Amino acid sequence: MKIAVCTLVAALVLATSITVGAQTPPARIVVHDETQLPRFAYPLKMAPSELLLADDATFAPFAATVGADVDKTLQDYDIQDLSTLREVLQTKLALQMLAGDADGARATIATIRADQPKADLKLLTDRLYLLQLDSRNGANATDLDRTFIDALPFDVVADSVKQSYGSEQSVTQDVLVGFIKHDLDPIYARTGTLDGPAAGELVPLRAQLRFVLPLVAVDVPVLHAYIAQHNVVKPDIWAARDVRLTPAQVVRPVVVGIWDSGVDLIDYPANVYVDRAGKHGLALADDGSPSPKYTYTLPPTTAAKYASEVKLLDGQADAQSAIDSPAADAYRRFLRALSPAQAAGFSFDMDWISEYAHGSHVAGIAVRGNPGAKIAVARFDDNLPNLSFAPSDAWLKRMAAGFAATAAYFRANHVRVVNMSWSDNVSEFEEWLAKTDPVSDPKTREARAQALYADWRQAIERVIAGTPGTLFVGAAGNGDNDATFAGEVPASLSFPNMITVGATDQAGDATTFTSYGPTVAVYADGFHVPSKIPGGYTVKFSGTSMASPAVTNLAAKLFALDPALTPVQARALIVSGATLSSDGKRKLIDPQRSVALLKKTQK
What is the distance between the alpha carbons of residues 124 and 161, in angstroms, rounded to a whole number? Predict the structure, then answer.
């Protein structure tokens, strides 16, 4: 993608130079991390959810301004991260579709596909846009779609096709408008503007509503027939690699820190750590002050709906896997019946339910098959953009003190391995400020976000560096991007006592969402992984958040088998025991091999 864009820009500049007298074009700014990109602000006269559905004359000035900024960004900046470049090009593509520029749209799609690192996305990205373009001349859309889909290699595209099939059956205009009400309207309400990332969400969604959503009725039967025809379930490589310890094998219990949103310990009675004070860890409230609660507190309105809405998670997981179960049908019917306001409310609830359930789900994966594992809770809320108050220096000072106390707890209680299934970056702080601070100037907001992020990052670095006797296991992130380019914390950090984990499906193939980069050392199962959440429910979640505790699980078993292991040694055993994926691009953990390597060193 980067080469194609550079070539196109160079050709345009060359043509202009010949016309005006062979002037030397200015060098493009090489962008090595997300903070080097320009920031934009777009004043609006109406809420984004209203602008999304406005007539063309009303939307056109906004689209023109965004388009000029997109073109200038591509012209002036050499974006090194393919995922970030794709986001800019996706906005350009949406604007071309809305403007009726079919040739330009085709060229942009070709550019986007050219540099896709994942084979399935190289084949499938923006296929419904292409279908819309191909059917404009009167060709039958169903025939075109079936011809294209039937020719796809199922072993390559299975996960992506199933996810498309599941999501398309649940999407309605009202649901999408509701998501904009939840995501973007609060930014407008506070500042009267949208920033660049928000505009990059709104413009493509308008194009999708106009050109993609009408094709769902065509696409769903085609995908259903394609999936049914092949009906091949990928083999599960992880069960054969698993290691389950017996009590007799545990040389010494292992304290496993779950640094997350909290854990409902009632689901893990045999795996609860009790310190000398009779406590099970420590917790921080949203404002950074100490809290006595090991689980997060849901907003009252969400808590009232928890029992009913959490049951939808099973249906969501089935729908994502193209499993036509009663639960999946119930989930789809629920979404299709929502009004925009109800969809916004449901999105709000799911944000908090996911946060509330997250740590418990992670804990179950981390201690599975290890009777020697003891959970120590380290709770804080990582859902920063949804906090109702603006970040402040005083808040950050309390959080830094809380993180220091967390590190002290890890050291004092000999916590051998800590799982960190969360991620923060500058953009997240910018989004938080956009929702809670009236300052609309994007450069001012960026500077403030960078200052907050720098202190936040330093506080987390101090925890890891200051606790050398503990192995920290981090999730790579779910942005399908380079975690280092995005500045994700902790995923972009590098310490001898830390390992970062990406996600694959059950067969060891990279998921569509997993992030990557030089700090990502190994991969583990992160696709529809079952575990407990508060209330005794077992649900399936997907994400690198689920892959990370699989590595924490392995590390805890290694420490249980050999308490003398150092974090550096345990990390080496995990990496050395991993095997290459079939395409040679990922190291897949293999607990049995790592345990065998440990036993070999003990002889």
Answer: 9
**Summary mean pLDDT of the chain:** 92
Interacting residues of 420 by C-beta distance below 8 A, sequence separation 6+: 259, 260, 472, 473, 474, 475, 490, 548
Does residue 573 sit within a domain? no
- How many domains does the chain fold into? 2
Would 586 be classed as within a structural domain?
no
Beta-bridge partner residues of 588: 523, 579
Q: Does some domain include residue 286?
A: yes
CA dihedral in degrees (261, 269, 249, 496; nearest 10)?
Answer: 10
pTM for this structure? 0.90
Burial of 391 (0-12, 13-18, 19+ CB in 10 A): buried
Q: Of 230, 260, 280, which marks where a domain is finished?
A: 230
Both 27 and 166 in one domain: the answer is yes
CATH number of the domain encompassing residue 526: 3.40.50.200
Find, among 129, 75, 78, 82, the residue nearest to 104 by Cα: 129
By C-alpha distance, which of 560, 570, 566 is closest to 594?
570
- Domain range for residue 442? 247-297+357-563
- Rounded Cα distance between 317 and 555, Å, is 28
| Residue position matching structure tokens 């109702």 | 388
Cβ–Cβ under 8 Å, residues 552 and 537: no
Q: Which band of pLDDT confidence, cut at 50, 70 and 90, is reported for residue 567? A: very high
> Could you give the 3-state DSSP secondary structure of residue 196?
helix
- Is 489 found in the same domain as 439? yes
In sequence order, what E strands does 438-497 have?
471-475
As a whole number of Å, the end-to-end CA separation of the chain is: 51
Cβ atoms of 474 and 499 within 8 Å: the answer is yes
Q: Give 211's DSSP letter.
A: I
Please count the CA atoms within 13 angstroms of the CA of 343 that sit on its side-chain side: 22
Q: Is residue 593 part of a domain?
A: no
Instruction: Specify the pLDDT at position 25.
Output: 60
> What b/e readout covers 172-200, taking b as 16+ CB neighbours within 10 angstroms?
bebbbbbbbbbbbbbbbebbebbbbbbbb
In single-letter form, the type of residue at position 243 comes to: V
Give the DSSP H or E segment for 601. helix 591-602
At residue 15, the pLDDT reads: 31
Give the burial string for 487-512 (b: 16+ CB within 10 Å, else e).
bbbbbbbebebbbbbbbbbbbbbbbb
pLDDT bracket for residue 582 (50, 70, 90): confident
The pair of structure tokens assigned to 268 is: 């893990």
Asked if 416 and 256 touch (Cβ cutoff 8 Å), the reply is yes
What sign does the CA torsion over 171, 174, 175, 181 have? positive
Grade residue 296 by pLDDT with cuts at 50, 70 and 90: confident
Whether residue 193 is found in the same domain as residue 288: no
Dump pLDDT digits (tens) for 218-251: 999 999 999 999 987 788 999 999 999 999 999 9
Asked if residues 48 and 202 have their Cβ atoms less than 8 Å apart, the reply is yes
More confident residue, 21 or 78: 78
Which helix (H) or strand (E) segment is 591 a member of? helix 591-602
